[in-house]
Amino acid sequence: MTAAFLVASAFLASAVEMVEALTIVLAVGVTRDWRSSLSGVGAATVALAVIVAVLGPALTLIPIDTLRLVVGALLLVFGLQWLRKAILRASGYKALHDEEEAFARERAEASAAGVELRAGLDWYAFTIAFKGVLLEGLEVAFIVLTFGSAQGSIPLAALGAGVAVVLVALVGAVARHPLARVPENTLKFAVGTMLTTFGIFWSAEGAGVHWPGGDAALPVVLVFVLLTSIMFVSLLRRRKLALA
Amino acid sequence: MSALRRFGRFWWEFVVGDDWRIAVGVVLALGATAALAATDAPAWWLLPLAVAFLLYVSLRRAAN
Q: Which residues of chain A, if any, have pLDDT below 70?
């Protein structure tokens, strides 16, 4: 069951980040130059693969309890950041992420930027696509490395993330438009819940806690985090309505 | 800003984000959990409750 959670979490996190990266790549590709944009995507993908390939084996050398404590704590802080933003978005305290709006903004910036050729590439298109994929992909790499190392299966986490990358790329190539219909804010809520759950579970284990029922406690922690988050959304919504 | 400082700032914002109090709270909660786990008393309940409390405090600050 933990393996299924692991793959699902890596898949969802990767999907939601890749939808954002796709918007950036499409905007510079359509507005500027496809060859330069796709070269940027390729270079960023190689950089991310190198990061995972180098750090992955290095992490497996750390004793599992220390690894779970450190990785779990990092994951918990990182996950709470996602969850906090998702709760603020769901309750109306933060603007929802809008891919159409992001696409229009990226296109306007790409149109206004000057042309500079380097190595036969439109440097603006290359660097924006590279940075977009690298920065969005770093979050995915972080999740793959932390989830995979704490669970002892980086390839499984990488598989979940890789399937999402391929799926989003295929849908994007067919649609040639930002995937605005993907329920991104709901997905971010789900990912934040999962990251926080795994963070609590692993960091507590690393700190010496024995969960009642062992791994069977994981879904119980998930339900606790989910219900607590839904309760906070409800409280904040009510507060916003009362102040309106 | 120096490259090293930019690098440090990037990773700080990447992992810690908007509210550093959450990171400090998590470290303190884990310390308390480890201390409780070192005794015979059950310690599994402490971290989930601490996380809920930290989230509540952070959201309240953000909403204000």
A: 1
Model pLDDT, residue B38: 94
Range of the domain at A192: 2-239
Q: Do A236 and B59 touch (CB under 8 A)?
A: yes
* Dihedral sign (CA A52, A58, A61, A64): negative
In a domain, A198, yes or no: yes
Q: Does B57 touch chain A (CB under 8 A)?
A: no
pLDDT single digits (tens) A118-149: 878 889 999 999 999 998 888 888 888 887 88
B19 touches A: beta carbon within 8 Å: yes
Which residue ranges make up each domain of chain B?
17-63
Nearest to A108 by CA among A31, A163, A184: A31
Q: Does A2 touch chain B (CB under 8 A)?
A: no
Nearest CB to A93: which of B16, B27, B63?
A: B63
Which tokens is B31 given? Answer: 């310390």
Which residues does residue A117 pair with via DSSP β-bridges, in sequence order? Answer: A122
The number of domains in chain A is 1
CB-based contact, A62 to chain B, within 8 Å: no
Is the CA virtual torsion A63, A64, A67, A69 positive or negative? Answer: negative
pLDDT in tens, A61-91: 888 888 889 889 998 998 999 899 999 999 9
Structural domain includes residue A244: no
| B8 to chain A, closest Cα gap in Å | 15
